[in-house]
Design a protein that fits this description.
binds zinc ion; mainly alpha; 0% strand; elongated; 72% helix
Length: 72
Amino acid sequence: MRAQRTVEHVTTETLVDYFGHRLPEHEEANVEKHIADCDECTALARRVRRVSHAMSKWTAKVHSSAKRRTGG
Ligand SMILES: [Zn+2]
């Protein structure tokens, strides 16, 4: 029998919440700990961070253009 750790990888959804600061403190700590240990999730976290950053810019853009269209 192999000594295999049951490691739950961090999901994309969790990472989105993590970068959006929507996770409870203990979960945030878990994510940080896992990322530090896991190359796969480090790579995933980098991607999600870029996407979530781009997404917040995008929503800001949509909101400002929607403002201009009001009236008429
Ligand atoms: Zn992982």
